[in-house]
Amino acid sequence: MRRATAPRTRPIVRIASAFAAGLAFCLGAYLLIDYARPDTLISISFLILLPGMVTAFIATIADPMGERPRRFYTWQVPAGLLGAVIVASIVFLREGTICIVMLAPIWLLSGAAGGALAYRFFGTPPEEGAGVVRSSALLLVPVLAMQLEPVLPVPVAQVAVTRSIVVRADPATIWPLAQGVGRIGATEGRWNITQSLIGLPRPESARLIGRGVGAIRDVRWQQHLNFQEVITDWQPGTRIWWHFRFAGKDLARWGLQDRHLLPDGPAYRISEGGYTLQPLGNGRTRLTLTTRYLVRTPVNWYARAWGELFLGDVSNNVLAVIADRAEKAQGVAPGVAASMSPPPVSLK
């Protein structure tokens, strides 16, 4: 049982020192992995074990006599560690927003689990200082896992993110826009979490060079992010499909956004996609945009969840642009929003 006495005020130096030591350990682990094997940052050891064990260490150092309440271990310390890591990532490591957003939820949950572990087993040690020694030993867990994980097989999954919209226009009106919408205005599209809140760049233009199979869609996003889509299937009024091509100089610009999450990197590799048009009658058409990618991480379930959000938001935004332009060309009165549907992730 934990002590029934009310918690005494701990010296601020002890708590600050505990957080400083924990943050230094996290940064050291990051720099070591980033130098040796940057592709293993998306891993069980870094995403799950490291925040949990460091949280247990900090909580026990900050509360060696086990006097603080459970919330100190399961909420205050994990939240404080995450906040410190985010600040350090922005100021010193120059990490992109996407990496930080993806890191936050799982680090907070893992930290809470590590804090609960410390509260249960190390909060009231049999003798003063024993809990500190044992929690310090927990720091060996992520270190050992980081040595073992790179030699283990990494699961690979082929994922498809699909979004659809019902457009009040016929396929003949939509087809030219599916080939390329040209310049996209700053006020076009829809509000979404990924681009409006997190800040992922929005598409600025999509232009078709040539016609038929072998033609190229030249796509440009904000912040000078460019790539090409090589047409592999061309069925006028019905289907247009392409293979993504990211040139070296274009990948370098993506790296400035988030060097650990390149669209053609070791963890994610966007491969192909395209539009299909399905007539629904009464002058309506279902327009579907599919993007397929390969994900290769030890935590594919987590990576896929974020891929569904990011690519789904981007797809919905582009579909909205096409729908608005097609309906305007068809002479449909504005005011009734076209309906979007987000089918579940599918595997191929």
Structural commentary:
The chain is of the alpha+beta class and 348 residues long. It has helices spanning 12-36, 44-62, 70-93, 97-121, 130-137, 140-148, 171-179, 193-198, 248-258, 300-330; strands at residues 156-167, 182-183, 203-209, 216-221, 225-235, 239-245, 268-281, 284-296, 340-341, 346-347. Strands 1, 2, 3, 4, 5, 6, 7, 8, 9 and 10 form a 10-stranded antiparallel beta sheet that branches. The protein starts with 11 loop residues before the first helix and ends with a strand.
Summarize the model shown:
With 348 residues, the protein is an alpha+beta fold. It has helices spanning 12-36, 44-62, 70-93, 97-121, 130-137, 140-148, 171-179, 193-198, 248-258, 300-330; strands spanning 156-167, 182-183, 203-209, 216-221, 225-235, 239-245, 268-281, 284-296, 340-341, 346-347.
Topology:
Layout: H1 12-36, H2 44-62, H3 70-93, H4 97-121, H5 130-137, H6 140-148, E1 156-167, H7 171-179, E2 182-183, H8 193-198, E3 203-209, E4 216-221, E5 225-235, E6 239-245, H9 248-258, E7 268-281, E8 284-296, H10 300-330, E9 340-341, E10 346-347
Antiparallel strand pairs: 1-8, 1-9, 1-10, 2-3, 3-4, 4-5, 5-6, 6-7, 7-8
Helix pairs in contact: 1-2, 1-3, 2-3, 2-4, 2-5, 2-6, 3-4, 7-10
Quick tags:
elongated, ten-stranded antiparallel β-sheet, alpha+beta, 10 helices
